[in-house]
Amino acid sequence: MVDVTPKDPTHRRAIARGKVFMTPETTSLVARGAISKGDVLAVARVAGIQAAKRTPDLIPLCHPLLVGSVFVNFRIEDTFIQVEAQVETVDRTGVEMEALTACSIACLTIYDMCKSADRSMEIGEIALWEKTGGRSGHYRRDAAGATPPTGADGAGSAGISSGDVVDDIDQLLGSDFTE
Q1: Exposed/middle/buried for 155, CB within 10 Å: 0-12, 13-18, 19+?
Q2: Region class of 170: left (phi > 0), else alpha (psi between -120 and 50), else beta
Q3: Which residue, 2, 6, 42, 96, shows the most beta carbons closer than 10 Å to its own?
Q4: Are 126 and 72 in the same domain?
């Protein structure tokens, strides 16, 4: 686990987004509140909030944080529901994992509640869209979804680039990935 005790607590915020792709008939059922399991978006919102608070229980080596707020919102389009999770804290490390976990679990909850109506659903495009606070400062994903490289050469200190296969755990642990 990374030692964050020397860091000063600062205000930190992270926003993650993802989508659940489905048929137009299914999005219509969700919008009308006609899914047999109940209010899909209300349940998915609560699931996302709970997930953000339980992130350190799910992801090894993730620091427990005092989560100050979690917002989970939705946008219904013809063929998908977009989920956006925003998490804030005042702490020594960021809340990116909490936002990504909230978004992922909200998407999974939508899938679970709608699967009887649509088995062809897909979950995708889960990504960090913005983060503020901390030593690395502000990050915002551009509209095309491209992300800036992690270093001058686009790789960590061990020469590991995004998409590389890591054959040795020591190679991974020696890397300098910053997110």
Answers
A1: middle
A2: alpha
A3: 96
A4: yes
Query: Using one digit for the tens of pLDDT, what is the confidence trace for 114-151?
Result: 999 999 999 999 999 999 998 888 999 987 765 554 44
Tell me: do 102 and 163 sit in the same domain.
no
Residues 134 and 112 in one domain: yes
Count the residues in the chain.
Answer: 179
Helix axes 24-32, 96-114, angle to 10 degrees: 100
- Residues 82 and 139 reside in one and the same domain: yes
Tokens of 178: 């910053």
Domain assignment of residue 170, given as a range: 150-179
Instruction: Tell whether 101 is covered by a domain.
Output: yes
Q: How many domains does one find in the chain? A: 2
Q: What confidence tens digit (pLDDT) does each residue in 48-77 have? A: 999 999 999 999 999 999 999 999 999 999
Edge-to-edge strand order for the sheet containing 67-76? Answer: 67-76, 80-91, 10-21, 122-132, 139-140
Is 4 contained in some domain? Answer: no
